From TrEMBL:
<dbReference type="InterPro" id="IPR041413">
    <property type="entry name" value="MLTR_LBD"/>
</dbReference>
<feature type="compositionally biased region" description="Basic and acidic residues">
    <location>
        <begin position="1"/>
        <end position="12"/>
    </location>
</feature>
<feature type="region of interest" description="Disordered">
    <location>
        <begin position="1"/>
        <end position="27"/>
    </location>
</feature>
<dbReference type="Pfam" id="PF17765">
    <property type="entry name" value="MLTR_LBD"/>
</dbReference>
<feature type="domain" description="MmyB-like transcription regulator ligand binding">
    <location>
        <begin position="24"/>
        <end position="130"/>
    </location>
</feature>
<protein>
    <recommendedName>
        <fullName>MmyB-like transcription regulator ligand binding domain-containing protein</fullName>
    </recommendedName>
</protein>
Length: 143
């Protein structure tokens, strides 16, 4: 069940990513640049925690991540803070191969709790050529 106010798995990223990494050991293999991506997300999570010091749900979740993942604990102790602007993500799909995305996180100026996460890829890249194929698989699978 998601917390009605914070929904940390969606907007903080690190929490959801690390939870999936613990629940699905293959997730760390599928995200080729997992460590740099996870470091970025932990630093973003630190920023979010400083914005909301009274959010018990968020801080409990951070404590859980630090307790259950030594890498998160180490990165947290580095005291890095990161804005949500942009990050690269390199995925290894079991059939499609390597997919490279740039992720931009857009924050509405008057609604700082709302974020739009946009995955893009370079035009004419292998990733751009593979996306319509992957999308067609989903359409076929749901018919």
């Amino acid at each position: 069940m998601r917390h009605p106010r914070t929904d940390v798995d969606d907007h903080a990223g690190a929490a959801g990513g690390h939870r999936r990494g613990e629940q699905d050991p293959g997730a760390r293999d599928r995200i080729v640049n997992w460590e740099s991506f996870a470091r970025f997300m932990v630093a973003a999570l630190r920023r979010e925690s400083s914005r909301r010091p009274q959010d018990r749900f968020l801080h409990d979740l951070i404590d859980e991540l630090r307790r259950t993942d030594p890498m998160v604990a180490g990165w947290w102790d580095d005291h890095g803070v990161r804005d949500y602007a942009s990050v690269a993500k390199h995925l290894r799909h079991p059939v499609a191969g390597d997919l490279h995305f740039d992720i931009e996180v857009v924050v509405a100026p008057h609604e700082p709790g709302q974020r739009l996460i946009v995955y893009t890829c370079q035009p004419d890249s292998a990733t751009a050529r593979m996306l319509p194929i992957l999308a067609s698989w989903e359409v076929t699978a749901t018919r």
